[in-house]
Specification:
This protein is mainly beta. The protein has a single domain, classed as Beta Barrel (Porin). 13% of the residues lie in helices and 60% in strands. It is built from three helices and eight strands; from the N terminus they run ααβαβββββββ. The chain has an eight-stranded antiparallel β-barrel with strand order 1-2-3-4-5-6-7-8. β5 and β6 form a beta hairpin. 23% of the residues are buried.
Length: 183
Amino acid sequence: MKKLFFFMIFCVSASHLMAQDKDRYSGLNEIKLNIPMAIAALPEINYERSVDDNVGIGLALSFAAEKPSVIAYRTLAMPYGRLYFGKKKTTGFFIEANLAAAQQHRITDKTDWVYDSINPYGTYTNIHIDESSFNMGFGGAIGVKLITKNSYVGEIFAGGGRLFGTSVKNGYFRMGLTIGKRF
């Protein structure tokens, strides 16, 4: 009788327990690599977190792999927010709003015609330009995100933005073909 009583208590308490809903807690994070930017010597790594079924927030980080004479952007950090219009969680067509923090550095040598007080008719002179700036700005993008059954993610997007202040370049172009994993 004692065993039956404990068995009944165990069954009643076990019926009130609920298992975790795996779909609800899994697949909230993504990490992605932007392939065209990596080919262009400005590799970009993205991290995105699903906040809701149709909203995601993320951070894109880029670092230049070439000299300042080739690529003016040295580092880019872009936090972004996306609104998705797909049927699955954070997939399908999206619109993006982003902020940008850009460090730029440009080194160029050029020959220019210069007028001065010594030679009023002008002379050709080599000019060395070494500019550096840190600027903030904002922009937007549109794109499509697809996901496989194995949680591999692919995106195609394009957009741009405007940098404010005295900068080497006044804007940025945001485009990509990213491949990554949702975990």
